[in-house]
Amino acid sequence: MDIRNFPPPKIPLSPVLDNNHAPNSHPEKTPSIFDAKYKLNTTSGRAALSIALEECGTTNEHEVLIPSYHCESMISPTLRLNAKAIFYRINSDTSPNLTDLKKKISPKTKAIIVTHFFGFTEDLTDIRQLCDTHNICLIEDCAHAFFGQINRQSVGTVGDYAIASTMKFFPVFDGGILASQKYNLQNISLKQPSLSFQVKSWINAVERALAYKRLGARGKVLNTLLSIKTTCWSFIKGLRPQESVVTSSPGSSEGGFGLDENWIYVKSTVSSQKTIINADYSDISKKRRAYYELLDDALRDLPSCEPLFKNLPHDVVPLVYPLKFQCPEQYFSALKEKGVPIWRFGEYLDEKVTPEEFPISRELSETVFQFPCHQSLTQDELDWMIKTIKETIKS
Ligand SMILES: Cc1ncc(COP(=O)(O)O)c(C=O)c1O
């Protein structure tokens, strides 16, 4: 079945704005990429990765080592600089295969990208040493791990640079972070986004919340105002010549994987930054861990599937709940048809990632589905998702 024909998810795949405004207090310090000394707010994770690669001096003469389990937006920043993307193997628990990584290092290697997949942080001690020995830049990809620790160090503080994708952890339309514990980023100049994008970003976050019936009575008023806006906008668009309607937001915000040059050196919007700064990190971390455990208790023993990770380490704040299916195709369409939100990370791997050389990445790409465990889910939504997954698998 064509993927575009599935109905929209009945419950949100990623966080949405709601009325649960916890006070802006951080009773216990929650480790996050923000603990790195230097930070910049970009429009997306891929924009941050593009800047990190440029900062470490990547050119068309270099190679960048990238996990063989990936999405396109992890590769395009390397290709943009005409450098060569070299893929390395990962193990079945998604950790980097150190033997293969060492084999792939050459005098041309400029950077190694290591990803903390699904929020499960990797011990980077050996890779850090490897990078120091060979004078290679280590880029910590925290797109799935905004929060968490590794050996008591916050995520994003071990690599020379680290990047995050805030859209995955907060109810925002745009946002990424470039961080570094080592390099001062103040010489990097980012443009302010246009006023129209600032407005669009805020409206989009509100519209998503309304679509999932968040925001209560306030939502009803906003809904009316937004309907008026939509009518006026359609009228204005009708008056304009078709060619003047240009793409007005980064592909990342629209769920695409492309890298748009025009959005790399741009700051994230004020509304996105405010949402992130005012969020209660401790509450988000606790909820994500609790919902992950709830899904794990309910789904881990189902026939023909198993959790990707055997347990949830105490210093991990998960992005999603990854479940491995024996016959994925049998269940994927059935679940999507019922409106269950599913992420399929690494669905489209680069053609150089052959089953012969990278059997594990190919297997993960085909068999692992990720279900949401984010902080905005309600108990009813979690119950519905669990019930629907169970019924689908048992039938
Ligand atoms: C592991 C990983 N790294 C980087 C990115 C890029 O992040 P963004 O979508 O914010 O550009 C993604 C996006 O899904 C990702 O999954």
Q: Note the beta-strand portion.
A: 5-15%
Report the total helices. Answer: 11
Give the C-alpha Rg: 21 Å
Q: What is the CATH topology descriptor of the largest domain?
A: Aspartate Aminotransferase, domain 2
Please give the CATH class of the largest domain.
Alpha Beta
* Alpha-carbon distance between the two ends: 19 Å
Q: Specify the structural class.
A: alpha/beta
Contiguous uncertain segments of 5+ residues: none
The hetero molecules present are:
pyridoxal-5'-phosphate
**How many distinct folded domains?**
3
The total of beta strands comes to 12
> Which descriptor suits the 3D outline?
globular
Estimate the mean pLDDT confidence.
92
Major sheet description: 7 strands, mixed
Characterization of this structure:
The structure is a single chain. It is globular, with a radius of gyration of 21 Å. It is 35% helix and 14% strand. It contains 11 helices and 12 strands. The model has no long low-confidence stretch (mean pLDDT 92). It has 395 residues and is α/β, with parallel strands linked by helices. The chain has helices spanning 45-55, 76-80, 98-104, 125-134, 195-211, 216-239, 270-278, 281-299, 328-337, 359-367, 379-394, and strands at 38-42, 63-67, 84-88, 109-115, 137-141, 149-150, 153-154, 161-164, 176-180, 305-307, 320-325, 368-372. The chain has 3 domains: 3-12 and 280-394, Aspartate Aminotransferase, domain 1, CATH 3.90.1150.10; 33-180, 3-Layer(aba) Sandwich (Aspartate Aminotransferase, domain 2); 195-259, no CATH class. The strands form 3 sheets. A 7-stranded mixed sheet has the order 1-9-8-5-4-2-3, with helices on both faces. Helix 5 (195-211) crosses helix 6 and helix 8 packs parallel to helix 11. Pyridoxal-5'-phosphate binds next to helix 1.
